[in-house]
Amino acid sequence: MDVVEDIADDFENYEDDTHLGYTAEVFDELVTKEEEPTRFQRANPFNKLLPYSDVLEVEADAMLADIKANLGRCVMQRDIKIGAVAWTKMLHKYIILYDLRFTKEDHIALIKLLYELMTIPNLETGLIVSFAYRLFLLLRERYQQGNKTWKPRIPDSHKLRDVDIDAFVNSLMPIVLQCIFHINRPESFGNAVQNLANLRPNVVIPRILEKIYPSIGVDIEPHKFQHAMANLMDVARPMILGSRVVNPEYAYVEGPQQVLPILFSTLSGIDLNDFIKYMYAFACLGLYATMIPIVDCSGCTAPDLTEDERLVCEQTSKFEDFVLQFMDKNICRSGSIRDRFLLIEML
């Protein structure tokens, strides 16, 4: 028995054999209709900038014709599980490549088709989800086409005030501080810390550091060191920006002055005998190293430096000491010549 007969057997228990009749009629009209390129709703404008844009037009026409013809054929032959799923995925790919490069009539017909497919009686859940997702994409694009200003205007009386954000952040901080070193904390905890630190750096970051600093550099449980490094990475951006954050009135101004102490504290995690701890330390070091220039600026005499900037410049004189300690831990103490060369390549 071929694939079409298998699919037909799977769907022979449908109570309404005419359920797909309307869909077939829609696609008979859709497939036989001649299209004018000027009638397309919206084409991908970037495709025109490609050197082979003329070829893309031909390929897009052929791809759309194949999608319409094969979707219609799958519906007529009741090839739902395999054929219809495959060609609706191809429709999704077409939209990604060419945007809404089909007519308004095609758009409406495709929406009707996917709705008919999604509402087939006794359809498997996986197929419903697949068709529903493609239907959502088409409906979303259709809605956005007709409603350029679909977002409702928020009344001033309903907007969040600074005092509301302060209250929100402060209400969550006790929970955050309690969960910092919890061995079973959820994976989303880091995202929560990051978002809170972006909202109110001056409230979140100093309290995080106050909790973390005493536990770094001493012989603690490995999971505590890992969580400490993870939290330092979560607050890295607003801390390094200091007063340059979007809302300077809520900035953690002393943040840039904490960078070097953090870099030195991560050195305690560089232990070749504890790979997980080693990788967390390297991840934290790598993140901070990509966000700051490791340059000695202690000799800077620019007249427009603020007091905080001057202190940060003075601190950079310790970069050389940090690099020497880093090299000592990673190269001089590695077990073999081969390990040393591997570490040098990593650096």
UniProtKB/TrEMBL annotation:
A single BP term in Gene Ontology: proteasomal ubiquitin-independent protein catabolic process
GO CC annotation terms, alphabetical: cytosol; nucleus
Region forming the signal peptide: none
InterPro entries (alphabetical): Blm10_mid (IPR032430), PSME4 (IPR035309)
GO molecular function: peptidase activator activity; proteasome binding
Pfam families assigned: HEAT_PSME4_mid
Lineage top rank: taxon: Eukaryota
Proteasome activator Blm10 middle HEAT repeats region domain: residues covered: 127-301
PANTHER family: PROTEASOME ACTIVATOR COMPLEX SUBUNIT 4 (PTHR32170:SF3)
Identification of the protein by name: Proteasome activator Blm10 middle HEAT repeats region domain-containing protein
Organism per entry: Trichogramma brassicae
Organism placement in taxonomy: Eukaryota, Metazoa, Ecdysozoa, Arthropoda, Hexapoda
